[in-house]
């Protein structure tokens, strides 16, 4: 990849801005000062700008503790989106949410630059579990749990069998491996309950890091990324 394109992709500015940085002599590739933006770079090259080594990885995976009142979208003219919670470099690299959480739903939201990984994680055929902690307006019962186990006809689609683990009177944990629009809320409505709070606590092999406050994020560890790829039936991409 051209040096100017790589640096622009890593959010060092527009191609024009990056070309100016390169011409100034601020960019060093593998120990050599490069002043030509068309210089071809490899993913393994060590690049430094103004004396600081650049993280040139193009494959990234992120865990975010999504707060409420934030849209799961790339951009919105009027409302704050989850992309606004991440440094701009991730959007430049094409890092996008894996599925979506409703505006008022909180908790674990994954992002990746790997489109195929995202597609597989969201496929119902993969049976990748998503676990939510739920609080409802009315107490939950074993009869409710039985309906979740049987699956539900919600009109426009039939929700596959899921698991409802009862907690205190009006709280529970529900495990699904689909992700239809408002699905969890609609399932509770089907058994006569209204969801007051909905928080995703796990996605596949990953649980929300308890050290992350609402709105906080971090990149996945190599071990976490490998577990995510395994759950999708893929080999890890270490690009």
Report on the architecture of this protein:
It is elongated, with a radius of gyration of 22 Å. By secondary structure, the protein is of the alpha+beta class. Strands 5, 6, 7, 8, 11, 12, 13, 14 and 15 form a nine-stranded mixed sheet that branches. A four-stranded antiparallel sheet has the order 2-1-3-4. It has a two-stranded antiparallel sheet with strand order 9-10. Helix 1 (3-9) packs across helix 2. It contains seven helices and 15 strands. The protein has helices at 3-9, 15-23, 88-92, 115-122, 142-150, 183-190, 222-231; strands at 27-29, 32-33, 47-49, 52-53, 61-66, 96-97, 106-112, 130-136, 152-153, 158-159, 163-166, 171-176, 195-203, 206-207, 217-219. The longest helix is centred in the C-terminal third of the chain and has 10 residues, at 222-231. Strand 11 and strand 12 (171-176) form a beta hairpin. The two termini are 13 Å apart. It folds into three domains: 3-53, RNA-binding S4 domain (Structural Genomics Hypothetical 15.5 Kd Protein In mrcA-pckA Intergenic Region, Chain A, Roll), CATH 3.10.290; 61-123 and 216-231, Alpha-Beta Plaits, CATH 3.30.70.580; 129-203, 2-Layer Sandwich (Alpha-Beta Plaits).
């Amino acid at each position: 990849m051209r040096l100017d394109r790589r640096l622009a992709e890593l959010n060092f500015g527009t191609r024009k801005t990056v070309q100016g940085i390169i011409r100034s002599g601020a960019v060093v590739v593998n120990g050599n000062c490069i002043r030509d933006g068309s210089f071809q770079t490899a993913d393994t090259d060590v690049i430094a700008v103004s004396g600081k080594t650049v993280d040139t990885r193009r494959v990234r995976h992120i865990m975010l503790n999504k707060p409420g009142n934030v849209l799961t979208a790339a951009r919105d003219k009027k409302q704050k989106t989850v992309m606004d919670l991440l440094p701009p470099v991730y959007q430049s690299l094409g890092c996008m949410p894996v599925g979506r959480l409703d505006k008022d739903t909180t908790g674990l939201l994954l992002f990746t630059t790997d489109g195929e990984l995202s597609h597989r994680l969201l496929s119902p055929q993969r049976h990748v579990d998503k676990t939510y902690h739920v609080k409802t307006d009315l107490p939950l019962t074993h009869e409710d749990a039985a309906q979740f186990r049987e699956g539900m006809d919600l009109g426009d689609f039939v929700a596959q069998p899921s698991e409802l683990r009862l907690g205190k009177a009006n709280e529970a944990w529900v495990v699904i491996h689909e992700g239809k629009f408002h699905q969890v809320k609609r399932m509770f409505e089907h058994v006569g309950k209204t969801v007051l709070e909905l928080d995703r606590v796990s996605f596949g092999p990953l649980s929300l890091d308890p050290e992350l406050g609402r709105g906080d994020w971090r990149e996945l560890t190599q071990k976490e990324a490998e577990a995510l790829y395994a759950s999708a039936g893929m080999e890890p991409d270490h690009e």
